Amino acid sequence: MTTINLVLCTCPDRETAEEIAVRLVDAGLAACVNVLPGITSIYRWQGKIERSQETLLLIKTSRSRLDELQQALVALHPYDVPEVIALGVEQGHQPYLEWVEQCTISS
Predict the structure, then answer these.
(1) What gap in Å lies between CA 20 and CA 99, rounded to an integer?
(2) Which of 28, 59, 92, 103 is the most buried (most CB within 10 A)?
(3) 19 three-class SS
(4) Sequence-separated (6 or more) residues with CB below 8 Å from residue 91
(5) Residue 95: φ, ψ to 5°
(6) CATH number of the domain at 4-103, please?
(7) What are 44-93's pLDDT values in tens digits?
(8) Where exactly are the structural domains of the chain?
C-alpha cells in the first residue's frame, strides 16, 4: 500500500467540477484532478430514484492531506451531501507516486 489516495467526487456540471479542481490543486490538496464529463448517475435521494448527468472528479492526493481535502470538497461543493470516496492506491509508477506526494506536502 502506498501513501497515495484516489478520491472520487461527482459534480453537477463541468464548470463546477473544473472550479473545484483548480481550487484543490492551487491549495496543494491535490496533485492532479481528472475531470470526466458525461456520466449518468442513478441514485436514491429523499425517497425517490433520481437520474442525473454529472461530471466525475478523479483526485490524486496524499494520505496526509486527505482530511483537509475532504473538508475543502464539502465546503466548495453545491450538493447537500457530496460524494467523497477515498480509495487507497495499492501500487503504481513510483516516480508518479512520489510526484503526488511532493505536490501535496503541507506547508
Answers:
(1) 21
(2) 59
(3) helix
(4) 2
(5) -60, -35
(6) 3.30.70.120
(7) 999 999 999 999 999 999 999 999 999 999 999 999 999 999 999 999 99
(8) 4-103
